[in-house]
Specification:
Elements: H1 9-19, E1 24-28, E2 31-34, H2 35-51, E3 59-63, H3 68-79, E4 83-86, H4 93-103, E5 107-111, H5 115-119, E6 129-133, E7 141-142, H6 143-149, E8 164-169, E9 179-183, H7 184-198, E10 205-208, H8 215-227, E11 230-233, H9 239-249, E12 253-255, H10 258-269, E13 282-286, H11 292-301, E14 305-312, E15 317-323, E16 337-338, E17 343-347, E18 365-372, E19 390-391, E20 394-403, E21 409-414, E22 419-421, E23 424-426, H12 428-435, E24 441-451, E25 455-464, H13 472-480, E26 493-496, H14 510-522, E27 532-534
Parallel strand pairs: 1-11, 3-4, 3-5, 4-8, 5-6, 6-7, 10-11, 10-12, 12-13, 13-14, 25-26
Antiparallel strand pairs: 1-2, 8-9, 14-15, 15-16, 17-18, 18-20, 19-20, 20-21, 22-23, 24-25, 26-27
Amino acid sequence: METYNDFTTTNVLNRWVLQRPDEIFIIDEDNTVTFKEFDLLSNKLANWLAESGVKKNDNIGVLLNNKLELVISMVAAHKAGAVVNFWNFRLSSQDIGKLINFVKAKVVIFESEFWDKVEQLKDIEEPPKYLCIGEKFPQVDEFNEVLQKSSPQPPSHISLEKDYASVIYTAGTTGLPKGAAFSHEAHIFSAMQYAIEMGITRDSIGLAAAPLIHGAALNFLMAYLFVGAKFVVLKDRKALSVLETLEKHRVSELFAVPTQTFDMLEILREGQFKLSDNILKLIRSGGSSATKEMVEDIHKLFKCHYQNTFGMTECLSNVTYMDSAYTPPEKWHTIGQAGFFWEARAITLDTERIVKPEEKVSIPGTGQLIVRGPQNISSYYMNPDAKLGFDQGWLYTRDVVEIDDNGYLKIIDRVDESILSGAENIFPQEVETVLVKYPQIEIAVVFGLPDQKWGEKVAACVKVTDPCTFSVKELEEFLAGMTELAKYKRPKVVIVVDEISRNILGKLERGKLKKEILSKFNEGILFEQPNVYTLG
């Protein structure tokens, strides 16, 4: 039988069921669920999973937006001893099918709005059992019906702290997205880290305005479970809806990516909404840089402090954080310093060899960020051969940072040239692969351009067969029909060029071209060119 010394998510819940059974845990729209009620609901689903053939270490997949049922599904999977795979609901049906096959998922839980993707699944080697939230479909069980029929008794499975509990997926360059697995212990470490950094208490009320399928938002939720506090789940994450929810439920801490914060600030500046004083204590963010001016606006309009964090899916948590309550204002634009349980350092940049962790740059200086902490993964889930920079416990982030005399870090580039737009990683190659399918495009080079709202926006330099007949409208229509490329990955700027140079090895000189385009962008003359097109 589990003891309270075991670091498991289910054990944490058991503590609050005993100590705070009638206190509210989850607030979903206008519904509230106490710890005791949540425990019974997750028991029911865990028992159904077991009856459906799910055993210890089996995988289940979820295609769910932020809602109560997502939290129930996660904890129920943990109670059943299963590993819950959080799949991005923006993935194409083809990619979802590949992931089902890859992890041999026994059950897939989805909400009805994603039925079209489930219905289109093909070539599934061992078809899982499907469970839908919201509607009844042929040969698919319905969530509420399952809960009505299943036993509320605690399942017999015992989880151990080293057991895998959840998997968060990175964006893939080609092929499958790669999974980073939380053990129960890693979940609890991350929850403790968040709780310490944010100062959460049992009186706190948290709201994540980002999808819980991402590690940062999931850790945010786990911190409130760990402390025994209230947590608000919100499906409609548009700026005005977030502000209204903050006010309605008296939220004390908000997790939002910079683009959402930017939109909320605009609404507050224009007087479209007014927050009551002394509600929000903290906005926590991550995914891209924040300017000092933005933090000042947060202090003025939200009347709260701001934490900007940096982390990777492979770290299972943030590894640095900047808290405006304790950081000098001249450092508010940074990602701060190493967080609780973490070490961070910058090492020499060298693309010709593998740099060892001991090769630290002189401070102040510029180098690749490497990090070490108890949540780091050492290999990808069920994919140990996938490339992962890891040495002596240090994870190589592939991010280039400036580090100052006081250890404050600022991200200035990425070694692998991935694009970070609205806290989503977009890899150039996957966009290029789709662009060259357009009949008029011969070569495409994709990179990011700075964007005040999104951090970066996707831009593409293309060589076309005939510039005179090239139609940006037709290209937009073509991209809209390409289901393998999510909307947020589509180019926002297309630049038609005469030639795209290659180096002596025949590789496209992406860096050289990006430098030329950025130079024109920074000079303010890029969009004056006749060959530059803006897409919707």
